Amino acid sequence: NTPYAPAPRERKAVWRVFPVPAAPLKRMAARLQHIGATEGLRSDRHALADLCAQADGDIRSCLMTLQFLKRSQQPVTSRSVAESHVGLKDQTKALFPVWEDLFHAKGDRSRYLKLLAQGPQPSPGDARSLAATKCHTGFLHNLRQVEAHPEHDRLLEGCFEHYLRIRYADSEGRRTAQCADWYAWAD
């Protein structure tokens, strides 16, 4: 519950805000795995960690998604989490956290781009397909944030302003040229 929402402004004068740090995603995933085992739901801890990351640490969203997957008789896999839109809140982040997520990916972006460059995906049981699914989850999370943000122009302007400040190894300038092409296409 955000204290900056417009609905509870009248009661804001009597509020007392207690900042509570977010639970670590590994701990949340372990707790969700315990709940799933109690309810008879087959799950993978990596998929549950992806679910926690996709829900931005919101335990209620995670539980709702698990409930939906159990009802539909699906095991909880990274692919089912990536394709699931159930339990996600209809909320937007401020510009700075979205830029932070875009520019400081957690190591998935380079693996995802390498897999994307390799061509079509193999069969679902293949190890490369599993790696692509894990990368796909992080990419989808960023894509959903960008699509859901109401200020596309300001978001794009901030990306254009800051993409040259990112440190990366590209002696030939191909990445910079690709970024410039995408920005030209977006205009």
Automatic annotation (TrEMBL):
GO terms for molecular function: ATP binding; DNA binding. The keyword Nucleus applies. The keyword Cell cycle applies. GO terms for cellular component: nucleus. Keywords: ATP-binding, Cell cycle, DNA-binding, Nucleotide-binding, Nucleus. It is found in: Nucleus. This is Uncharacterized protein. It comes from Eutreptiella gymnastica.
